[in-house]
Amino acid sequence: MKNEKNLKNDKRAVSPVIGVILMVAITVILAAVIAAFVFGYGVPTSAPKAQFQLNLNSTDPTDIDLKHMGGDAVTWTQTTIMVTGATATDPSDSLTVGNAVVIAKGAQSGTEVEVILIDKTSQQLIFDGTIRP
User: Fold this and answer.
1) N or C: at which end does the chain have fewer Cβ atoms within 10 angstroms?
2) CB-based contacts of 132: which residues, under 8 Å, 6+ apart?
3) Measuring CA to CA, which residue among 109, 67, 65, 63 is closest to residue 87?
4) pTM of structure
5) What tens digit of pLDDT does each residue of 59-112 get?
6) pLDDT at 99
7) What do you get for the CA distance between the two ends of the chain, in Å?
8) Nearest CA-CA partner of 117 in 87, 80, 77, 88
9) H or E segment at 16?
10) Closest CA to 103 of 111, 71, 93
């Protein structure tokens, strides 16, 4: 009878078991945090930082030119072009400082044309401008 009473009060085996369970739990949590940083958080991409100016085309006032005034170069294959009030063109080259391209065709006189450029990779706005031919 004495042995049974001693077994019920003997708690020596509890401490190592709890210690092992805590170490395993800490290892799993640490592995999950490291995995979240490695797989979930990549290097954030940002849109090019550039300044643009919309102008009427000197040879055809129904066409609108987009002129790159400064900042990063813009590659058209990485850019979504949205135009309202005219037909968007599909430029093939990148645009660097001082260059201009026809960005919209067939704008009607007196109609406001809005041009929006969005970086395809980061889905961030690069440019949003309006002009009235």
Assistant:
1) N
2) 110, 111, 112, 113
3) 63
4) 0.64
5) 888 899 999 999 888 888 888 889 998 898 888 888 888 888 899 898 888 889
6) 87
7) 103
8) 80
9) helix 14-35
10) 93
Amino acid in the structure at residue 57: N
Find where tokens 């509890």 sit. 14
How many C-beta neighbours within 10 Å does residue 114 have?
Answer: 15
Domain parsing of the chain, residue ranges: 2-40, 50-131
What mean pLDDT, rounded, does the chain reach?
84
Q: In what order do the strands lie in the sheet with 113-119?
A: 79-84, 113-119, 125-131
Asked whether the beta carbons of 45 and 55 are under 8 A apart, the reply is no
> What integer pLDDT is reported at residue 28 of this predicted model?
95
CA–CA dist 22, 28 (Å, integer): 10
The encoded tokens of residue 125 equal 């706005």
Tell me the C-alpha to C-alpha distance, in Å, between residue 33 and each of 23, 42, 51, 55, 85. 15, 14, 40, 51, 49
Tokens at residue 5, please? 């009473």
Neighbours of 106 (CB within 10 A): 13
